[in-house]
Amino acid sequence: MSAAAPAAALATGRTRGREGSALARRVRRAVVSVVVFVLLWELGSRLKWPWVGDAPPPSAVLKVWLPLLTDPGYWYSWYQSSRRVLTGFLFAQLIGIPLGLAMATNRVFNDLTFPVFEVLRPIPPLAWVPAAIIFWPTQESSIAFVTFLGAFFVVVINVLGGAKSIDVRYFQSAYSMGATKWDVFRRIILPATLPSIFVGAAVGMGITWEVVVAAEMISGGGGAIQSSAGGGLGFFIWNSYIGFSYPQIVVGMISIGIAGYISSSIIRAVGVVCTPWLRTR
Length: 281
What we know:
The protein is mostly helical. It contains 10 helices and no strands. The chain has 2 domains: 1-55; 56-278, Orthogonal Bundle (MetI-like fold). The protein is 79% helix and 0% strand. The two termini are 29 Å apart.
């Protein structure tokens, strides 16, 4: 026991050291890729490369962005869009995950619901915007509904696919040893489906950001403060376009990208914690 303890501690230290080195390498590569991208963008914008066109260079974007960092309206736009994304995303998880699991584990329920689901799934979320504006009492609820749809179908499909991909021999083995249906669900189906749940959540989060921005553009900010920075990042971009402030459009676009990256990174981090058995792969 006394000899095994230092060996285990040494092995743990080496593992953590390798993980730290791998993380440092990933960070360095990410920094290099961002720097190269910005340099190519700056050069292409100034030399009028065809794939860049008349896009403002990063230096012009930064010049416009710095004053906005102290503008409360800009951060209020972040808050508005983030709140709408979080609302739609959470409802999509609360409804989509149980629905996907029910469809995967109950053949009768799947036969009743899957045809309707498949008919509605190919409809783009933005195609629902006019109907949502008509049928929901406020523009804010319309945006929340469209945002919900952006993540809902992705979540259900990933949960359904993850649950149906489980090897049937696991079920046969469990039932042969006297396991109940609840045991099979709790010990086999749910753990095996968790990776697919988090993949669907990460993808759904990205789509949710895309949808909420477009919905804000179309609906005019959801009845929020009607200013260039008050109705969400989508309305912020639209107002910048109307005002011919092209660097500010890019600021809004980059802001959306940063928000989406942070949101998806949080989901992936939670997924790593909730699926520790995948870390050894």
